[in-house]
Amino acid sequence: MTDLESGAVRRSYLSDISDERWVLVEPVLTAWKAKHPSVSGHSGGYAMREIVNAILYQSRTGCQWDLLPHDLPPRSAAYYYYALWRDDGTAQTLHELMRCRVREVAGRAEDPSAVAMDSQTVHAAAGVPAETTGLDPGKKSRGRKRGIAVDVLGLVIAVFVTAACVHDNQVGIELLNRVAIDNPSVKKAWVDAGFKNAVADHGRTLGIDVVTTSPPIGASGFTPVTKRWVSEQTFGTLMLHRRLARDYEKRPESSESQIYWAGIDRMSRRLTRTTSRWRDDLPAPLPGLLAT
């Protein structure tokens, strides 16, 4: 990597995107850049790969935008592109394309036929606007609620972030709407008992069979629930990205985008068989994995 000030090659951070992973991301961002030329004709002072490195560094470490290392693009550049890609859907598009590739490599159809839905309440940081947060009466926790729908591989299909005081019914209904719009192939959804009859009724109007699954009778402590455990596992893996350990975003849309970027990081590593640490003994990527 190149140091921004001296032009010298900088040392890589553990969060940096590798050459193999960049092959997956670069075509989408190159096409985006070609469609969004600067009015002045300026190509920009920072390479798209370094912008992605800044976003992934912030996602993984949880630092503030203003505290990005000096050898990464500054907040003015990193957040500029992050916000653009959040608002025009580029981050979600990149996530969706990568998810389809992961499913294809796993021997599954690109479009899922079933999802598992769950919600998670997280504390909000001090700077988060009060009007976008609330108190979850069940968990006695104040902050925001994240709702996700994932496929059987645990890959995110839909995301909805709202105030923690919003009932799971509303979260479930919105998730079903987003699933139906972007993935009309989905015909079944597994949920927990927190999603009431209103969610099942709404699912029927969309052609989605909503099934409530519960732990075995008499089970105590944490017990993985058939079909639905993948959503809980996904929440666990998302928490490896410290930006998601608490909700720091002023806008719920930014919180949703953070989940997409965490998914992009996770899936690109999965496709290239790399871990979160640099190692010399990792297996090579699967044959033909990076083919377009």
Structural overview:
Strand 2 and strand 3 form a beta hairpin. Helix content is 40%, strand content 13%. The chain is built from 8 helices and 6 strands. Strands 1, 2, 3, 4, 5 and 6 form a 6-stranded mixed beta sheet that branches. The longest helix has 21 residues. It starts with 18 loop residues before the first helix and ends in a 20-residue tail after the last helix. The protein is an alpha/beta fold and 292 residues long. The C terminus is likely disordered. It has a domain of 140 residues: Ribonuclease H-like superfamily/Ribonuclease H (Nucleotidyltransferase, domain 5, 2-Layer Sandwich). It comes from Actinocorallia longicatena. InterPro entries: IS402-like_dom, Transposase_11. This is IS5-like element ISSco3 family transposase. Pfam families: DDE_Tnp_1 (PF01609), DUF4096 (PF13340).
CATH A-level architecture of the domain at 110-249: 2-Layer Sandwich
Tally of helical runs: 8
CATH topology of the domain at 110-249: Nucleotidyltransferase, domain 5
Helix content: 25-40%
Approximate strand percentage: 5-15%
Mean pLDDT: 88
Gap from first CA to last CA: 25 Å
SSE sequence, one letter per element: HHHHEEEEHEHEHH
| Helix/strand structural class | alpha/beta
CATH evolutionary superfamily of the domain at 110-249: Ribonuclease H-like superfamily/Ribonuclease H
Radius of gyration: 20 Å
Low-confidence stretches: 278-292
What coarse outline follows from CA principal-axis ratios? Answer: globular
The overall strand count is 6
Q: What composes the largest sheet? A: 6 strands, mixed
CATH C-level class of the domain at 110-249 is Alpha Beta
Organism: Actinocorallia longicatena
Protein name: IS5-like element ISSco3 family transposase
Domain Insertion element IS402-like: 17-95
Domain Transposase IS4-like: 111-211
